[in-house]
Structure formats: C-alpha cells, structure tokens
Specification:
Order of helices and strands of chain B: HHHHHHHHHH
Largest sheet of chain A: none
Structural class of chain A: mainly alpha
Distance between the termini of chain A: 53 Å
Distance between the termini of chain B: 72 Å
Helix content of chain A: over 70%
Oligomer: heterodimer
Radius of gyration of chain A: 17 Å
Shape of chain A: elongated
Strand content of chain A: under 5%
Number of strands of chain B: 0
Number of strands of chain A: 0
C-alpha cells in the first residue's frame, strides 16, 4: 500500500481522538482519547520514516510513547486523588483552579 | 497479501478508535483501545518498524492498559453515575457535542487536504528501498544505535521525564495523613508469641500493654 493510505488512517484516528477529547466528560475517557490522538501522530511519524528510509521518525515515535506513558501516570494519579477527595469525576464539574 | 493485511488492520484501528469515543462504560472504552493498539502494531509492522511495533504491544497494550483497567475498577462506581447524568443532559450539552463532532470533521477535512493534496510525489510511493539484514531499517540494532549516538540527548531527556512522572504519580496518589496510630499498636510482633504476658518489660511498666 502506498504511504498516502497510512497517512489517511492516521488523520482519521487523530480526528476521532479530538472528537473524544471535546465531547466526553469522564476524564478517564478524555485521557483515552488523548492516547488516540498521540497514536494518530505516531502512525504518521512512522509512515514518513518509511517514506524516506530514515530512522528519525521511529525515534520520534518512541519519544512520543514515553511522553504518553508519563501523561497516563500523572493523569491517572490525578483521577485517583480526585476520587479520594470525593470530588466529582467530571471535567465539567471541576472548577477548583478557577479561583 | 500486504494490501489485505493493511485493510484488516486499518479497519481494526478505526473501529477501535470509534469504540473508545462512543462507548458509554469506560471499561469498554479501555478494551476498544486495546484492539486499536494491537491493530496499530500490525500497521507498524507493515511499515517495517519492528521495534516500534514490539514496544507498542509490550508497553502500551501490556503495561499502560493494565494501569487503566485498575483505575477504572477503582473509580468504577463514580463513573456509572456520570453516565446517567450524561444521558439526561440538557439541550446545551447535546449542542456542544454536535459542535465537537463538527469540529472533528473540520479537522479531518483539513488534515486530509494537507496530507493527500500535497505536492510531494513520495507520498504516493511505496517508501524507500529496504534491504533485509540483521541491522536493517527498523530493527532493534538500528534503533539502538540511533538512540545512543544521534539522539542521545533525547534519550536522556526521556528517561529524566519518566523519573519525574514516577515521582509525581506517587505524590499525587499517596494517602494523606500518615499511618493510623491504632493500626500500629494492634500489630502483633514475633516477640509476643515467644514470651508470656506480664514478664515485666519496660512497656508494661509505663502502662502500655500489648506490645
């Protein structure tokens, strides 16, 4: 298959992730949708890496995976902390940072 | 064969992504994401990125998803009531959801125009040449050599970022207020089994029993 097909799939996955981030209210699902967006970006990076026969895109994809793992760690820690403090697990109800 | 595998994996990737966004129960969303990640690993293999595909399956579908499943099981009761509230949402919420879907469609259109309407001829090609071998493109040896020579700084920064995230996760999720005093006093030590009560230790002398 030509590289363009992979790029089209990555664009679809990225847009689906964006829709999930905007429309869902459960922060767990928002984090999952963020993973979708990162994976769309990863697929495009690996496809471009294959296109040029150059390993830089794959290294970039690995670094993106690392950042995604860190983001999951912090995000899930925040969700557990919210649950412990009996705050609502809902991104529309959380307004503590508004001051 | 390659085209058949591509379409199979691409359908899995997109169906998994739709499942993540659409499913009402977060647990099913996590399972849909696992399907998405496994199909994505097949796409990576088709792009000759063996090491990235292996990392995708081991780290993402293995470790990160287990973390998600644990947290979903931990806060599961709260998310049920969230789902009920979502179904009974007012017209403003449904309007916002429609707006989000329209925005997503706009992003998709823009990306497709940018990616497929580009003047690059290489996009329509099948990629650069590939010579099989022990140090070929995408093998662990190739990636490792790149990581430890050209991208050493990125490698070190990534490891430092992981350290910061680990410390942050412990700080965020730890239990506040320290240990319970009563738990500490009621604990049975091995010495309690060895010697009978009332043998005149210092603790009994000052009035503390059971230790």
């Amino acid at each position: 298959m030509s590289i363009a097909w992979y790029l089209a799939v990555s664009a679809v996955v990225f847009s689906l992730g964006a829709v999930g981030v905007i429309t869902r209210r459960n922060p767990l699902v928002v984090l999952l949708s963020l993973e979708l967006m990162l994976n769309g970006g990863n697929l495009a990076l690996v496809a471009f890496s294959r296109m040029w026969g150059n390993g830089d895109g794959q290294i970039f994809a690995l670094v993106v995976m690392t950042v995604a793992a860190c983001e999951v760690c912090i995000g899930l820690g925040m969700i557990v902390a919210l649950y412990r403090r009996r705050l609502p697990i809902d991104v529309d109800e959380l307004r503590e940072l508004q001051g | 064969m390659s085209a058949f595998l591509f379409f199979l994996a691409a359908i899995g990737v997109i169906a998994g992504a739709i499942g993540v966004v659409v499913m009402r129960n977060p647990f099913y969303s996590v399972l849909a994401l696992v399907i998405h990640l496994l199909s994505l690993a097949v796409l990576f293999l088709l792009l000759r990125a063996e090491f990235v595909a292996a990392v995708q399956v081991v780290v993402y579908a293995g470790a990160v998803m287990v973390l998600y499943v644990f947290v979903v099981a931990y806060v599961g009761d709260a998310s049920e009531s969230i789902g009920e509230r979502l179904s009974g949402a007012g017209p403003v919420a449904s309007g916002l959801r429609l707006g989000g879907a329209i925005l997503g469609g706009a992003i998709l259109t823009e990306l497709l125009i940018a990616l497929l309407g580009t003047g690059l001829e290489a996009v329509d090609g099948y990629g650069a040449g590939y010579v099989p071998g022990p140090r070929a493109f995408g093998t662990p040896a190739y990636i490792g050599q790149l990581l430890l020579t050209r991208f050493l700084l990125a490698f070190e920064i990534a490891s430092f970022l992981l350290l910061i995230a680990a410390v942050g996760g412990v700080v965020l999720a730890r239990r506040r207020g320290g240990l319970d005093e009563e738990d500490d006093r009621d604990r049975l030590t091995p010495l309690d089994l060895l010697r009978p009560q009332g043998t005149g230790t210092t603790a009994e002398g000052v009035g503390r029993h059971g230790s």
